[in-house]
Please model this.
Amino acid sequence: MDRLQKLAAGSIVVGIAVLALKYAAYLLTGSIALYSDALESIINVVTAVVALLAVRTSAECGMRSSWWTNSPTRSAKPMF
Model:
């Protein structure tokens, strides 16, 4: 796992920790505002998971040679 993937995975861990703390605070206080904020944190965790998938996919694509970068037409000069 490279540095970016570790950062993205860390973001998931932090998001889950924040979600758990907000939910625990809701259970202790009964505050609907804290409950709403905890529910919003679910979206943050989902976003972090998508970011990790995007980083992993981009790393895999970067390891393979791309038809776009190796295409002879990419280095050709314009005709006009």
